[in-house]
Amino acid sequence: MRAAVLHEIGQDKLEVLDDVEAVGFGPGKVRIRVRATGLCHSDLSAMSGVLPQPAPFVPGHEGAGEILEVGEGVGHVKPGDRVVVCWLPACGSCPACGRGQTELCLAGFMNAGTPNFRRPAGDVFGFAGTGTFAEEVVVDAGCAVPIPDDVPFDIAALIGCGVTTGLGAALNTADVEAGSSVAVIGCGGVGICAVQGARLKGAAEIVAVDPVASRREAALRFGATRAVPPDELADARQQVTGGEGFDYVFEVVGRSATARAAYENTRRGGTLVVVGAGAMDDFLQLNMFELFFDEKRILPSMYGGGDILRSYERTIALWRAGRIDLAGLITHRVPLARIDEAIEQMRTGTALRTCVEI
């Protein structure tokens, strides 16, 4: 079968090969025919080495498709079912799951160290234990979440990561208060979903911050009340909050510099929500006096900060009701053979989300 492979960490481009085999099928596993997958910035971060991932590997973790085969003991899906790929499945038995914090379950991360593809040259890993830049993938049954027949594969793919992460940051982690002021730093697909989440919660002012003009324009269409480049954030803060700072600031870039800017633009007693996934050697510096004196809440948001399956269901309900726009997030479409075009669109900021059709 075909799959896009990164041979070594640090390479800029993928190679689409037709000698890749999805392996590991057996009890508790499912084989999925991938139909659509989104390109998330985390894929690029894994390719560059910002996020740890063994190589060679098949990127992609935001996918949807059809069940081809189910292993022994799998009862919640059957061949022909439409599913979204969940890259962080909950085991249901660990302490995090027992507390209801299924987004903190580590079972899915353990899968990342087991190859689920093979080539004649040797084993190949799937990013985050999945690897959806492939025609087929074998994953733990918990990674296959059934979806209704009326949810298109491209929409379902986005729910698998970016939409759940961005919406959840506003709805679950921050629990944005109606009438509040919000700033979102970084307005790619995830940031735009944070904007939509803040709008759903009734935020009075939503300032979108991004260096790319097309993304700022998109943020206004999705519910931001104003959009500015980073060097105009201070002016927006003054105009919107009288200089006090925003009630909520979402950092959706994953860098200490933007996290520091987010902290500085959060009002005293306000909330900074860290959504971007950054590098282990990139440190955010705060002095102990400001941490105490300003009483700002710093809330990391992992995969939307809530029960993943419930978040999927909620997102589908909101989409059906027309309360959120998911189709509008897809600004570009490419076949798997042109995956490098999607990567370039992500790197340059020209795409909110590129749908890779497989």
Describe the structure.
There is one protein chain. The chain is an alpha/beta fold. The longest helix is centred in the middle third of the chain and has 13 residues, at 162-174. The N and C termini lie close together (11 Å). It has twelve helices and 19 strands. The strands form four sheets. Strands 4, 6, 7, 10, 11, 18 and 19 form a seven-stranded mixed beta sheet that branches.
Ordered list of secondary-structure elements with their pairings:
Layout: E1 3-5, E2 15-17, E3 21-22, E4 29-38, H1 41-48, E5 57-58, E6 62-70, E7 82-85, H2 95-98, H3 107-111, E8 117-119, E9 122-126, E10 136-140, E11 144-146, H4 153-159, H5 162-174, E12 181-185, H6 189-200, E13 205-209, H7 213-221, E14 226-228, H8 233-241, E15 246-251, H9 256-264, E16 266-274, H10 288-294, E17 297-300, H11 308-320, E18 330-335, H12 339-348, E19 353-357
Parallel strand pairs: 5-9, 12-13, 12-15, 13-14, 15-16, 16-17, 18-19
Antiparallel strand pairs: 1-2, 3-8, 4-6, 4-10, 4-19, 6-7, 7-11, 8-9
